[in-house]
Design goal:
Strand content: 25-35%
Shape: rod-shaped
Radius of gyration: 57 Å
Number of domains: 2
CATH class of the largest domain: Alpha Beta
Distance between the termini: 88 Å
Structural class: alpha+beta
CATH superfamily of the largest domain: ATPase, nucleotide binding domain
Largest sheet: 5 strands, mixed
CATH topology of the largest domain: Nucleotidyltransferase, domain 5
Number of strands: 17
């Protein structure tokens, strides 16, 4: 995405375009009414994009303070009070934590930084606010060099970075990986080809100032890293001579540009392209813009986060949908395979049945018969008890000839008892044994119809004595209707007079 980088120094404001890690210079504007008007018109033509303001001015203050460690609203109030105390209410201020002390109360060391001349920024900021553009941050070279020189800052306990920009010669001190101090020198030599000769003088002045302010102990060794173009390396190397406290390290700006990913390397020792690229790629938390001026940027971040979350949710949804489609296809294939297996098994079963001899009855009838046997077997112990009782009753009538005995269970109770037994064996229902007796009266002693009835009644009485709860005549040895009287004579008697009795015995619990 196209980024608009604004560089502000005492001479005015210049614009740069950053896209695909390449920098392209844009228009410049003088700090007067005409320049402000031209800048407002340019903003109207370039609203679509993000704007970052890089300020490079002398009026920049740094103060390290040790404060009690607090969080939340107390911390915000403490930082605001210290900023007002150090920088007289400048709205362009920032606070960078340098970590907590390792002993005592473990207080926190904070670097307070600010642009102490708000009047330099206000005319430009008024046009930015009026144009309603997205301002990402207001930063300075001191806040950016920690990202551009990350490896050297971490490798050296005390590192003084020297850079040349259109504003002058800047020296920035890092101690234990954190920013401590920055100073801009606007000498005449910094704008000429002899700027390298002024480096030792300005570095020595800065070193003496830090010793005087007790930021450094006298005699402390400091590594001085100078960012210089390859064409100026020889001149700067001859001018910068090591001393007991200062050790110079020359860094090629072209190599620095390749390290941080800048596609358009600088053409001279001007470090502005490196700083602008760092401003575009590393916003960081330390910056000078008030919260109200970054509201549009925060909203843009929220929109981007929402869009990213939506894209992630969409991707997850598509993945889940793809998995569901794949699972559906696999399930459908599994169903088809199962159906094919079932059809194959059915054909194999039919072939097997065709090779077996046919049953004398249908399969349904055979299954019904087996089911009946299983029900009877599960509901009773058999006819033994009923037959014993029947034999005892018939012992009293030795002249009676038994032709057939049929034993069964009470038909109306069988199914009910079977279901109850299957559902709860402990609550199995009771069933009754039913015995059907087919017999003949004595053939050697002729009996009249009345005598035959009396003899059959005696047999019924004997059955009841032996425990039959019900005993009845199913068929007499002669035809009889209610409108006919019993004969007392014995003439015309059937030579094989059969009668049928039915007896029911007490209920017993199923097995």
């Amino acid at each position: 995405m196209l980024r608009h980088l604004l560089y502000l120094d005492a001479s005015g404001l210049s614009c740069w375009y950053w896209q695909a890690r390449a920098l392209t210079p844009g228009p410049s504007f003088r700090p007067d009414d005409a320049g402000y008007a031209e800048f407002a018109g340019w903003l109207e033509d370039n609203k679509g994009g993000y704007f970052t303001l890089l300020t490079d001015c002398v009026e920049e203050g740094f103060q390290v303070e040790t404060t009690p460690y607090v969080v939340g609203a107390d911390r915000r109030a403490l930082i605001a009070r210290k900023q007002n105390q150090f920088f007289y209410g400048s709205p362009y201020a920032s606070a960078v934590s340098l970590g907590r002390e390792r002993s005592g109360r473990r207080d926190e060391r904070i670097l307070f930084a600010a642009l102490t001349r708000p009047a330099l920024l206000e005319p430009w900021m008024e046009r930015l606010r009026a144009a309603d553009v997205v301002l990402t941050s207001i930063t300075s070279p001191a806040l950016l060099l920690g990202h551009a020189m990350r490896h050297q800052v971490r490798a050296n306990a005390r590192l003084l970075v020297v850079t040349r920009t259109p504003a002058g010669l800047r020296q920035t001190l890092f101690e234990d990986g954190s920013l401590r101090f920055s100073r801009l020198a606007t000498t005449a030599e910094s704008h000429t080809s002899a700027w390298g000769a002024s480096i030792p003088f300005e570095v020595q002045k800065t070193y003496q100032y830090l010793v005087t302010q007790r930021a450094l102990a006298r005699g402390t060794q400091v590594v001085v890293a100078v960012i210089v173009h390859g064409s100026d390396l020889a001149a700067v190397r001859s001018a910068c001579v090591d001393s007991d406290s200062l050790h110079y390290l020359l860094l090629d700006s072209g190599e620095r540009a390749a390290t941080i990913g800048l596609a358009t390397p600088p053409e001279d020792s001007d470090a502005l392209p490196l700083l602008l690229h760092t401003a575009a790629t590393h916003g960081g938390n330390a910056q000078f813009a008030p919260p109200r001026d970054r509201m549009a940027w925060r909203w843009a971040i929220a929109q981007r986060v929402t869009l990213a979350c939506g894209l992630v949710a969409l991707a997850i949804g598509l993945m889940l949908a793809g998995k569901a489609v794949f699972d559906t296809r696999m399930l459908r294939q599994s169903i088809e395979d199962t159906l094919l297996d079932a059809q194959s098994n059915e054909l194999r079963y039919e072939r097997l049945l065709s090779t077996m001899p046919k049953l004398p009855v249908s399969l349904d009838a055979l299954q019904a018969g087996i089911g009946g046997i299983e029900r009877i077997d599960s509901l009773a112990d058999g006819p033994a008890d009923a037959l014993v009782r029947l034999s005892r009753a018939l012992d009293r009538h030795p002249a009676v000839t038994v032709k057939r005995i049929e034993w069964s269970l009470a038909a109306e109770q069988v199914d009910e008892a079977y279901r109850a037994s299957a559902a709860s064996p402990a609550k199995a229902a009771a069933v009754r044994d039913v015995v059907t007796l087919e017999a003949t009266l004595p053939a050697n002693t002729p009996l009249s119809q009345r005598e035959a009835v009396l003899a059959i009644n005696e047999i019924i009485e004997s059955l009841r004595r032996e425990g039959a709860i019900e005993a009845s005549v199913v068929r007499l040895p002669f035809e009889y209707t209610s409108d006919r009287t019993l004969r007392s004579s014995v003439g015309g008697r059937d030579p094989d007079p059969r009668f049928v009795l039915k007896a029911s015995y007490p209920e017993r619990r199923a097995k």
